[in-house]
Amino acid sequence: MCPRRTANLMDAIVKSKKSRVRRIALITVACVVAVVLVGMGTVLAVGGIFVPATYLQPWSATYYQQFTDPRMQLVAHAVLAPSGHNMQPWTVQLDATDTDVLYLYADSTRLTPAVDPFARQTMVSQGAFLAYLQVAAEHLGYSASFELFPNGTYDETNLEESMSALPVARITLAKDPSAATDDYDSLFVSDTNRSPYTEARLTAAQSDALSAVSGSSAATLSILTTKQDITALGELGIEGTRIETEYLPATEESDAVFWGTEQAKNEARSGFAVEGQGTTGLMKYFLQGLITIVPAVNDDAAGAKNAIALTAAGVAHSAGYALISTAANSRAEQVEAGIMYAQFSLRARTLGLVTQPLSQVLQEYPTMAVPYAAIHAKYAPEGQTIQMLVRVGMPTTQYPVTMRRDAASLVYSP
Protein backbone atom coordinates (compact mmCIF):
# COMPACT_ATOMS: atom_id res chain seq x y z
CA MET A 1 0.00 0.00 0.00
CA CYS A 2 1.22 3.48 -0.77
CA PRO A 3 2.82 5.10 2.27
CA ARG A 4 0.86 8.32 1.63
CA ARG A 5 -2.42 6.44 1.55
CA THR A 6 -1.44 4.62 4.71
CA ALA A 7 -0.69 7.91 6.46
CA ASN A 8 -3.99 9.40 5.31
CA LEU A 9 -5.82 6.34 6.56
CA MET A 10 -4.11 6.56 9.93
CA ASP A 11 -4.97 10.26 10.17
CA ALA A 12 -8.59 9.47 9.39
CA ILE A 13 -8.67 6.79 12.04
CA VAL A 14 -7.15 9.14 14.62
CA LYS A 15 -9.57 11.93 13.72
CA SER A 16 -12.46 9.49 13.91
CA LYS A 17 -11.37 8.35 17.36
CA LYS A 18 -10.97 11.95 18.54
CA SER A 19 -14.38 12.79 17.17
CA ARG A 20 -15.92 9.84 19.01
CA VAL A 21 -14.15 10.86 22.21
CA ARG A 22 -15.47 14.43 21.85
CA ARG A 23 -18.98 13.15 21.18
CA ILE A 24 -18.80 10.87 24.20
CA ALA A 25 -17.47 13.74 26.33
CA LEU A 26 -20.22 16.07 25.14
CA ILE A 27 -22.86 13.43 25.74
CA THR A 28 -21.44 12.77 29.21
CA VAL A 29 -21.38 16.48 30.08
CA ALA A 30 -24.90 16.90 28.72
CA CYS A 31 -26.09 13.97 30.81
CA VAL A 32 -24.44 15.35 33.92
CA VAL A 33 -25.93 18.80 33.30
CA ALA A 34 -29.33 17.24 32.67
CA VAL A 35 -29.12 15.22 35.89
CA VAL A 36 -28.03 18.32 37.82
CA LEU A 37 -30.84 20.41 36.32
CA VAL A 38 -33.41 17.71 37.01
CA GLY A 39 -32.05 17.37 40.53
CA MET A 40 -32.13 21.11 41.14
CA GLY A 41 -35.60 21.31 39.63
CA THR A 42 -36.78 18.57 41.94
CA VAL A 43 -35.25 20.27 44.98
CA LEU A 44 -36.76 23.64 44.00
CA ALA A 45 -40.16 22.06 43.42
CA VAL A 46 -40.05 20.31 46.80
CA GLY A 47 -39.03 23.65 48.32
CA GLY A 48 -42.20 25.20 46.93
CA ILE A 49 -41.03 27.39 44.06
CA PHE A 50 -44.41 26.97 42.33
CA VAL A 51 -46.52 27.55 45.49
CA PRO A 52 -47.98 31.07 45.99
CA ALA A 53 -46.76 32.62 49.25
CA THR A 54 -50.12 33.48 50.79
CA TYR A 55 -48.39 33.85 54.17
CA LEU A 56 -46.96 37.15 52.88
CA GLN A 57 -50.30 38.71 51.92
CA PRO A 58 -50.52 40.94 55.03
CA TRP A 59 -47.35 42.74 53.90
CA SER A 60 -49.20 44.25 50.95
CA ALA A 61 -49.91 47.95 51.47
CA THR A 62 -53.48 47.35 50.25
CA TYR A 63 -54.18 44.25 52.37
CA TYR A 64 -56.17 46.19 54.98
CA GLN A 65 -58.59 47.47 52.36
CA GLN A 66 -60.46 44.16 52.26
CA PHE A 67 -61.94 45.08 55.65
CA THR A 68 -64.68 47.69 56.02
CA ASP A 69 -64.55 47.92 59.83
CA PRO A 70 -61.85 50.48 60.75
CA ARG A 71 -60.91 48.34 63.74
CA MET A 72 -60.09 45.42 61.48
CA GLN A 73 -58.19 47.70 59.14
CA LEU A 74 -55.93 48.53 62.08
CA VAL A 75 -55.62 44.89 63.12
CA ALA A 76 -54.56 44.12 59.53
CA HIS A 77 -51.63 46.48 60.04
CA ALA A 78 -50.83 45.44 63.60
CA VAL A 79 -50.38 41.78 62.62
CA LEU A 80 -47.10 42.89 61.03
CA ALA A 81 -45.65 43.60 64.48
CA PRO A 82 -42.68 41.57 65.72
CA SER A 83 -43.22 38.90 68.36
CA GLY A 84 -41.18 36.36 70.28
CA HIS A 85 -40.45 33.33 68.05
CA ASN A 86 -42.76 35.07 65.55
CA MET A 87 -45.62 33.32 67.34
CA GLN A 88 -47.94 36.34 66.92
CA PRO A 89 -49.71 35.57 70.21
CA TRP A 90 -52.61 37.95 69.71
CA THR A 91 -56.37 37.71 69.60
CA VAL A 92 -58.83 40.57 69.38
CA GLN A 93 -62.44 41.05 70.35
CA LEU A 94 -64.53 43.67 68.58
CA ASP A 95 -66.89 45.40 71.00
CA ALA A 96 -70.43 44.59 69.83
CA THR A 97 -71.94 47.71 71.40
CA ASP A 98 -69.32 50.32 70.53
CA THR A 99 -67.85 50.33 67.04
CA ASP A 100 -64.93 52.48 68.22
CA VAL A 101 -63.68 49.89 70.74
CA LEU A 102 -61.78 46.64 70.50
CA TYR A 103 -59.91 44.51 73.00
CA LEU A 104 -56.51 42.86 72.71
CA TYR A 105 -55.93 39.50 74.40
CA ALA A 106 -52.82 37.35 74.68
CA ASP A 107 -53.28 33.99 72.99
CA SER A 108 -52.35 31.36 75.57
CA THR A 109 -52.15 28.67 72.87
CA ARG A 110 -49.11 30.43 71.39
CA LEU A 111 -46.77 30.54 74.37
CA THR A 112 -43.12 29.43 74.28
CA PRO A 113 -42.49 28.27 77.84
CA ALA A 114 -38.98 26.91 77.26
CA VAL A 115 -37.47 30.29 76.37
CA ASP A 116 -40.17 32.44 77.95
CA PRO A 117 -41.16 30.58 81.13
CA PHE A 118 -42.98 33.55 82.68
CA ALA A 119 -44.57 34.82 79.44
CA ARG A 120 -42.69 38.10 79.77
CA GLN A 121 -41.75 38.16 76.08
CA THR A 122 -45.37 37.39 75.23
CA MET A 123 -46.37 40.58 77.02
CA VAL A 124 -43.65 42.54 75.21
CA SER A 125 -45.18 41.22 71.99
CA GLN A 126 -48.57 42.62 73.05
CA GLY A 127 -46.99 46.04 73.32
CA ALA A 128 -45.49 45.75 69.85
CA PHE A 129 -48.96 45.00 68.45
CA LEU A 130 -50.37 48.10 70.13
CA ALA A 131 -47.58 50.32 68.79
CA TYR A 132 -48.13 49.13 65.21
CA LEU A 133 -51.88 49.60 65.59
CA GLN A 134 -51.35 53.15 66.82
CA VAL A 135 -49.14 54.10 63.86
CA ALA A 136 -51.72 52.64 61.46
CA ALA A 137 -54.50 54.56 63.23
CA GLU A 138 -52.64 57.84 62.89
CA HIS A 139 -52.08 57.21 59.19
CA LEU A 140 -55.79 56.50 58.65
CA GLY A 141 -56.90 59.61 60.53
CA TYR A 142 -57.62 58.23 64.00
CA SER A 143 -56.20 58.53 67.45
CA ALA A 144 -55.95 55.24 69.37
CA SER A 145 -55.88 55.30 73.15
CA PHE A 146 -55.00 52.28 75.28
CA GLU A 147 -56.18 51.25 78.71
CA LEU A 148 -53.94 48.44 79.87
CA PHE A 149 -55.54 45.55 81.78
CA PRO A 150 -58.91 47.29 82.10
CA ASN A 151 -60.45 44.30 83.90
CA GLY A 152 -57.47 43.66 86.14
CA THR A 153 -54.19 41.86 85.75
CA TYR A 154 -53.61 38.14 85.51
CA ASP A 155 -53.87 35.50 88.20
CA GLU A 156 -50.28 34.28 87.94
CA THR A 157 -51.21 30.94 89.52
CA ASN A 158 -53.61 30.29 86.63
CA LEU A 159 -51.95 32.24 83.87
CA GLU A 160 -53.30 30.60 80.73
CA GLU A 161 -56.91 30.82 81.87
CA SER A 162 -56.39 34.45 82.91
CA MET A 163 -55.01 35.30 79.48
CA SER A 164 -58.18 33.99 77.89
CA ALA A 165 -60.43 35.83 80.33
CA LEU A 166 -58.72 39.18 80.81
CA PRO A 167 -57.80 41.62 78.01
CA VAL A 168 -54.35 43.12 77.80
CA ALA A 169 -55.78 46.38 76.53
CA ARG A 170 -58.99 48.22 75.76
CA ILE A 171 -58.39 50.20 72.57
CA THR A 172 -60.56 53.19 71.80
CA LEU A 173 -60.53 54.93 68.42
CA ALA A 174 -61.54 58.49 67.69
CA LYS A 175 -61.55 60.39 64.41
CA ASP A 176 -58.67 62.86 64.51
CA PRO A 177 -58.04 65.10 61.48
CA SER A 178 -54.72 66.20 63.01
CA ALA A 179 -53.40 62.65 63.38
CA ALA A 180 -50.16 62.04 61.50
CA THR A 181 -47.12 59.79 61.59
CA ASP A 182 -43.74 59.62 59.90
CA ASP A 183 -43.37 55.89 60.53
CA TYR A 184 -46.21 54.36 58.50
CA ASP A 185 -44.07 53.13 55.62
CA SER A 186 -41.76 51.42 58.11
CA LEU A 187 -44.59 49.04 59.07
CA PHE A 188 -43.98 47.23 55.78
CA VAL A 189 -40.22 46.74 56.22
CA SER A 190 -38.70 43.72 57.97
CA ASP A 191 -38.36 44.41 61.68
CA THR A 192 -35.19 42.32 62.12
CA ASN A 193 -31.89 42.43 60.23
CA ARG A 194 -29.30 39.91 61.48
CA SER A 195 -26.56 40.79 59.01
CA PRO A 196 -23.36 42.68 59.87
CA TYR A 197 -23.94 46.42 59.69
CA THR A 198 -21.72 49.05 58.10
CA GLU A 199 -18.93 50.78 60.01
CA ALA A 200 -20.95 54.02 60.15
CA ARG A 201 -21.59 55.25 63.68
CA LEU A 202 -24.90 56.68 64.83
CA THR A 203 -25.02 60.43 64.32
CA ALA A 204 -26.16 62.77 67.06
CA ALA A 205 -29.29 63.51 65.03
CA GLN A 206 -30.09 59.80 64.70
CA SER A 207 -29.56 59.19 68.41
CA ASP A 208 -31.76 62.15 69.30
CA ALA A 209 -34.52 60.99 66.94
CA LEU A 210 -34.42 57.49 68.39
CA SER A 211 -34.41 58.76 71.97
CA ALA A 212 -37.45 60.92 71.24
CA VAL A 213 -39.75 57.88 71.04
CA SER A 214 -39.48 57.36 74.81
CA GLY A 215 -41.97 60.14 75.61
CA SER A 216 -43.75 59.63 78.93
CA SER A 217 -43.55 55.83 78.88
CA ALA A 218 -43.14 53.73 81.99
CA ALA A 219 -40.20 52.11 80.18
CA THR A 220 -36.75 53.65 79.87
CA LEU A 221 -34.73 53.70 76.66
CA SER A 222 -30.92 53.87 76.74
CA ILE A 223 -28.83 54.09 73.56
CA LEU A 224 -25.25 52.91 74.05
CA THR A 225 -22.60 53.63 71.44
CA THR A 226 -19.23 53.54 73.20
CA LYS A 227 -16.71 50.93 72.10
CA GLN A 228 -16.70 49.46 75.61
CA ASP A 229 -20.47 49.01 75.70
CA ILE A 230 -20.62 47.65 72.15
CA THR A 231 -17.98 45.06 73.01
CA ALA A 232 -19.55 44.08 76.33
CA LEU A 233 -23.08 43.78 74.97
CA GLY A 234 -21.89 41.93 71.88
CA GLU A 235 -20.13 39.35 74.03
CA LEU A 236 -23.29 38.91 76.09
CA GLY A 237 -25.29 38.52 72.90
CA ILE A 238 -23.00 35.73 71.69
CA GLU A 239 -23.08 34.02 75.07
CA GLY A 240 -26.87 34.16 75.18
CA THR A 241 -27.10 32.65 71.72
CA ARG A 242 -24.67 29.88 72.63
CA ILE A 243 -26.57 28.97 75.80
CA GLU A 244 -29.93 28.97 74.04
CA THR A 245 -28.64 26.67 71.28
CA GLU A 246 -27.34 24.25 73.92
CA TYR A 247 -30.57 24.25 75.93
CA LEU A 248 -32.48 21.22 74.66
CA PRO A 249 -36.01 22.42 75.60
CA ALA A 250 -35.33 25.63 73.66
CA THR A 251 -34.09 23.85 70.55
CA GLU A 252 -37.03 21.45 70.64
CA GLU A 253 -39.42 24.37 70.98
CA SER A 254 -37.83 26.13 68.01
CA ASP A 255 -37.80 22.96 65.92
CA ALA A 256 -41.53 22.55 66.52
CA VAL A 257 -42.30 25.91 64.89
CA PHE A 258 -39.80 25.75 62.01
CA TRP A 259 -41.41 25.32 58.61
CA GLY A 260 -39.35 24.15 55.66
CA THR A 261 -41.67 24.47 52.65
CA GLU A 262 -43.97 27.07 51.17
CA GLN A 263 -47.03 24.90 51.78
CA ALA A 264 -46.10 24.44 55.44
CA LYS A 265 -45.61 28.18 55.83
CA ASN A 266 -48.96 28.87 54.18
CA GLU A 267 -50.61 26.62 56.74
CA ALA A 268 -48.71 27.83 59.82
CA ARG A 269 -48.21 31.52 59.00
CA SER A 270 -46.15 31.95 62.17
CA GLY A 271 -42.92 30.65 63.64
CA PHE A 272 -39.56 30.26 61.90
CA ALA A 273 -38.40 29.72 58.31
CA VAL A 274 -35.22 30.17 56.30
CA GLU A 275 -36.08 33.83 55.63
CA GLY A 276 -35.13 34.51 59.24
CA GLN A 277 -31.51 33.97 58.25
CA GLY A 278 -31.80 36.36 55.33
CA THR A 279 -32.24 33.67 52.65
CA THR A 280 -34.09 34.88 49.56
CA GLY A 281 -34.69 34.11 45.88
CA LEU A 282 -33.88 30.73 44.36
CA MET A 283 -31.61 29.93 47.29
CA LYS A 284 -34.64 30.04 49.61
CA TYR A 285 -36.47 27.38 47.62
CA PHE A 286 -33.32 25.33 47.10
CA LEU A 287 -32.52 25.34 50.83
CA GLN A 288 -36.13 24.50 51.75
CA GLY A 289 -36.13 21.59 49.31
CA LEU A 290 -32.76 20.37 50.53
CA ILE A 291 -33.88 20.51 54.17
CA THR A 292 -37.03 18.58 53.28
CA ILE A 293 -35.19 15.89 51.30
CA VAL A 294 -32.16 15.68 53.63
CA PRO A 295 -33.31 16.84 57.12
CA ALA A 296 -29.83 16.27 58.56
CA VAL A 297 -28.73 19.42 56.71
CA ASN A 298 -30.65 21.41 59.32
CA ASP A 299 -30.07 19.36 62.46
CA ASP A 300 -29.60 21.03 65.83
CA ALA A 301 -25.80 20.95 65.66
CA ALA A 302 -25.74 22.66 62.29
CA GLY A 303 -28.38 25.15 63.40
CA ALA A 304 -26.46 25.99 66.58
CA LYS A 305 -23.22 26.52 64.69
CA ASN A 306 -24.94 28.77 62.18
CA ALA A 307 -26.78 30.78 64.85
CA ILE A 308 -23.60 31.45 66.83
CA ALA A 309 -21.63 32.38 63.70
CA LEU A 310 -24.41 34.69 62.54
CA THR A 311 -24.57 36.43 65.91
CA ALA A 312 -20.79 36.75 66.13
CA ALA A 313 -20.61 38.30 62.66
CA GLY A 314 -23.42 40.66 63.51
CA VAL A 315 -22.12 41.96 66.83
CA ALA A 316 -18.70 42.52 65.30
CA HIS A 317 -20.32 45.15 63.07
CA SER A 318 -22.80 47.17 65.12
CA ALA A 319 -23.15 50.92 65.51
CA GLY A 320 -24.72 50.65 68.93
CA TYR A 321 -27.30 49.03 71.18
CA ALA A 322 -30.57 50.02 72.75
CA LEU A 323 -31.60 48.83 76.19
CA ILE A 324 -35.24 49.07 77.21
CA SER A 325 -35.80 48.74 80.95
CA THR A 326 -38.58 49.08 83.48
CA ALA A 327 -38.45 49.96 87.16
CA ALA A 328 -40.01 46.64 88.13
CA ASN A 329 -41.42 43.81 86.05
CA SER A 330 -45.20 44.09 86.17
CA ARG A 331 -47.36 42.92 83.30
CA ALA A 332 -48.24 46.51 82.42
CA GLU A 333 -44.55 47.46 82.39
CA GLN A 334 -43.78 44.55 80.08
CA VAL A 335 -46.43 45.78 77.66
CA GLU A 336 -45.08 49.34 77.90
CA ALA A 337 -41.61 48.02 77.07
CA GLY A 338 -43.02 46.31 73.99
CA ILE A 339 -44.67 49.53 72.85
CA MET A 340 -41.37 51.36 73.21
CA TYR A 341 -39.41 48.62 71.43
CA ALA A 342 -41.73 48.71 68.42
CA GLN A 343 -41.68 52.51 68.33
CA PHE A 344 -37.88 52.44 68.46
CA SER A 345 -37.64 49.83 65.72
CA LEU A 346 -40.08 51.67 63.46
CA ARG A 347 -38.31 54.99 63.94
CA ALA A 348 -34.96 53.34 63.21
CA ARG A 349 -36.27 52.10 59.86
CA THR A 350 -37.70 55.53 59.09
CA LEU A 351 -34.18 56.90 59.62
CA GLY A 352 -32.68 54.29 57.26
CA LEU A 353 -31.35 52.17 60.12
CA VAL A 354 -32.06 48.52 60.95
CA THR A 355 -32.29 46.59 64.21
CA GLN A 356 -31.98 43.12 65.66
CA PRO A 357 -33.20 42.01 69.10
CA LEU A 358 -30.50 40.06 70.98
CA SER A 359 -32.65 39.26 73.99
CA GLN A 360 -31.64 35.64 74.55
CA VAL A 361 -29.47 36.85 77.41
CA LEU A 362 -32.62 38.25 79.06
CA GLN A 363 -34.45 34.93 79.13
CA GLU A 364 -35.26 33.58 82.58
CA TYR A 365 -34.58 29.83 82.45
CA PRO A 366 -31.91 28.40 84.79
CA THR A 367 -29.00 27.91 82.39
CA MET A 368 -29.17 31.58 81.37
CA ALA A 369 -28.87 32.77 84.97
CA VAL A 370 -25.20 33.82 84.87
CA PRO A 371 -25.27 36.16 81.84
CA TYR A 372 -28.74 37.37 82.90
CA ALA A 373 -27.27 38.43 86.24
CA ALA A 374 -24.22 39.94 84.54
CA ILE A 375 -26.12 42.23 82.19
CA HIS A 376 -28.43 43.38 84.99
CA ALA A 377 -25.51 44.01 87.37
CA LYS A 378 -23.80 46.22 84.80
CA TYR A 379 -26.74 47.96 83.14
CA ALA A 380 -29.55 47.81 85.71
CA PRO A 381 -27.73 48.28 89.04
CA GLU A 382 -30.75 49.75 90.83
CA GLY A 383 -32.89 46.67 90.38
CA GLN A 384 -34.58 47.52 87.08
CA THR A 385 -35.61 44.77 84.68
CA ILE A 386 -34.05 44.92 81.23
CA GLN A 387 -36.85 43.95 78.85
CA MET A 388 -35.08 44.28 75.47
CA LEU A 389 -31.52 44.36 74.11
CA VAL A 390 -31.40 45.56 70.50
CA ARG A 391 -28.59 46.01 67.93
CA VAL A 392 -28.86 49.03 65.68
CA GLY A 393 -26.92 50.31 62.68
CA MET A 394 -26.82 50.98 58.95
CA PRO A 395 -27.66 47.94 56.81
CA THR A 396 -25.36 46.20 54.37
CA THR A 397 -28.27 44.18 52.99
CA GLN A 398 -32.04 44.18 53.26
CA TYR A 399 -33.72 41.29 55.06
CA PRO A 400 -36.86 39.62 53.73
CA VAL A 401 -40.18 39.84 55.56
CA THR A 402 -41.52 36.72 57.27
CA MET A 403 -44.79 34.85 57.77
CA ARG A 404 -47.84 36.64 59.11
CA ARG A 405 -51.26 35.36 60.11
CA ASP A 406 -54.41 36.43 58.34
CA ALA A 407 -55.92 39.32 60.31
CA ALA A 408 -59.38 37.72 60.32
CA SER A 409 -57.96 34.70 62.18
CA LEU A 410 -57.17 36.89 65.19
CA VAL A 411 -60.80 37.66 65.97
CA TYR A 412 -62.46 35.67 68.76
CA SER A 413 -65.07 35.94 71.47
CA PRO A 414 -63.81 35.07 74.98
From TrEMBL:
Q: Does the keyword Membrane apply?
A: yes
Keyword annotations of the record: Membrane, Transmembrane, Transmembrane helix
Membrane-crossing ranges are: 24-51
Tell me which domain of life the UniProt entry assigns to the organism this sequence originates from. Bacteria
* Statement: the UniProt record of this protein carries the keyword Transmembrane helix: yes
Which Gene Ontology terms cover its molecular function? oxidoreductase activity
Q: Which NCBIfam families match?
A: Rv3131_FMN_oxido
Q: Which PANTHER family match?
A: MALONIC SEMIALDEHYDE REDUCTASE RUTE-RELATED
This chain belongs to which protein, by name? Nitroreductase family protein
Taxonomic lineage of this organism? Bacteria, Bacillati, Actinomycetota, Actinomycetes, Micrococcales
